[in-house]
Amino acid sequence: MNIHPTAVIDPEAKVHASTTVGPYAVIEKGVEIGPDCVVCPHAVITGLTTIGARNTIGSFTNIGGPPQDLKYNNEPTRLVIGDDNQIREYVSIHRGTPGGHGVTTVGSGNLLMAYTHIAHDCVVGDHVIMANAATLGGHVEVADRVIIGGLTAVHQFVRIGEYAYIGGMSGLSKDVPPYVIMAGIRNQMRVTGINRIGLRRSGFSADEIKKLGQAYKIIFRSPELLLQDALAKTLEEIPDCAPVAKLVNFFATSKRGAVRMAGDDEE
pLDDT digits over 2-47, tens only? Predict the structure, then answer.
């Protein structure tokens, strides 16, 4: 194990022998860190935090800190982080609350750029990119392969669907459907099209992307239709397409309401 002599590691912390710990890093009781991780100088990892393999924990990060919730009273809640994540300098990720999931979850293959924040009870999927200073409130759910632009703030309990692309400096107060490009603040949230480039790079077929484009025009570009009528029309005109069915289902299961307003079209 390559541990710098100035690092402070609690004897009851479990750090894999192949992990590197830099100068002045602090790893407290209850932490478990898997193989081939790098804990950079001055990182702080605390609480009941489990970290998988091959993660990089940047300098001055705070991983597993207590939730910023006035009801929290030092209950034994958790943070679970998967494999192959890049967690850059000054990132903070807080563990869960008893009133939520009891655990904050971050998947694998994510890039969390400098100063990003993941609050208590969030569920972040795989291959997510959060640009600098993007912030998730409590209980937010971010699906796989979402990109969140810098300085974006996400209201508590919001859901963001898979492959969504969020423009920088946005403020999200409603759910964001999968596969779309979206930007704006609160009541100015606007969807401007399907994330065609991201879908193409991720292996979606031309036919699937075409059908999502058709669904976009029905759901987001038909203001004369009530949402329930637009969803029904979408399924009727575009049957047997799994991504379209997921898009429709996201609206149907939204508790906060999903953004439907369209902006300047990028289609």
Answer: 999 999 999 999 999 999 999 999 999 999 999 999 999 999 999 9
pLDDT-derived band at 266 (thresholds 50, 70, 90) equals low
Contact 42, 24 (CB under 8 A): yes
Q: Report pTM.
A: 0.97
Dist CA 124 CA 111 (whole Å): 11
Q: Is 230 left (phi over 0), alpha (psi -120 to 50) or beta?
A: alpha
Using one digit for the tens of pLDDT, what is the confidence trace for 4-16?
999 999 999 999 9
Residue 240 DSSP label:
S
Instruction: Give the relative orientation of helices 242-253 and 227-237 as an angle to the nearest 10 degrees.
Output: 160
At 142 the three-state DSSP class reads strand
Residue 188 DSSP one-character state: G
**Amino acid present at 153:** A
Query: CA neighbours within 13 Å on the CB side: how many for 206?
Result: 0
Q: Mind telling me the catalytic residues?
A: 120-121, 138
